[in-house]
TrEMBL record:
Keywords: Cell membrane, Membrane, Transmembrane, Transmembrane helix. This is Lysylphosphatidylglycerol synthase domain-containing protein. The chain crosses the membrane at residues 29-46, 66-86, 98-121, 141-166, 178-200, 220-241, 248-267, 300-317. It comes from the Bacteria. It is found in: Cell membrane. The lineage of its organism: Bacteria, Pseudomonadati, Pseudomonadota, Betaproteobacteria, Rhodocyclales.
Amino acid sequence: MMNMRRLSLPSMDFSALKNRIDWVKAGKVVTFGLLAAAAVMIIFYARNIDWNAVARALKSYSAREIAFAGALTACSFLTYSCFDLFGRHYTGYELRTARVMLITAISYAFNLTLGSIVGAAGMRLRLYQQIGVKAGDVGRIILISVGINWLGYALVAGVLFVAGLIQLPPDWEVNARTLPILGWALIAVVASYIGASIFYGDRGFTVRGREVCLPKTGAAVLQLVLASCNWMIMGGVLYCLMQQKVTYALTLAVVMVSSVAGIISRIPGGIGVLEAVSIAILAPQLTEARVLAGVLAYRAIYYLAPLVLATGGFLALQAADRGQAASAAE
């Protein structure tokens, strides 16, 4: 493979992060506190749920529905695993495509359940450094991947809001009048990115003393297509597990709103957040038992099953790398 020129992108300073022991400890205390508070609220709320009805709703799933949701989940992870390939290109490393995609998928699975510090940052840092990627370049890869993901979010959410395809609960601060405004703002962000790639693609410009290099227009469009497809597939998984008894736009809205709410709450895996958002948006059309059954199935298929597979993949990579290191030392 031809060597690609190294482009200067803003990077995450992992060395500084490692030295902020007090900050990390404080973050852990806050996280455990939020988890404890969420656990208390969930236990309190769970006492009023008809779990027999939830169990009956879970038993109503056919093998075909579960298999289809699993296939969509695999498509989502395959799509997301392409994000780091853009980072590989712009940092100039000659890494095997399969290895990069596997690292991305493993990190994504851990990120969904255990949070971004463990998944998006921790797992990538460990796995990339094992194959010779410098910490600063790992930061660049993460930055590019995260940016692609949220640009896709902005495009899908913007179209949803502008088109008026979703109806949020009336007691929420964001109402029918403000949603289109928010939607146009999100679309403007995406349009600005595409516009910048047209004028500055692969050439770069300086922001606060840092050189930022944007992809060419074709690559920028491909990033948006991949990221948008991933968000829409996620909505499709939940739509399937709600047995198509609500509109696809509503299940997509649940996934997107709960993703932002989970980040704001800082609770790993959005424990309790996804459930609360799902009930708020979907309960007017479905029973709480049906909604909770769908969310539990979604967590099992989209969160827990990939985490089990990712753990196996991580251990396999560790064993393979140790074996190669031992062979090289002989």
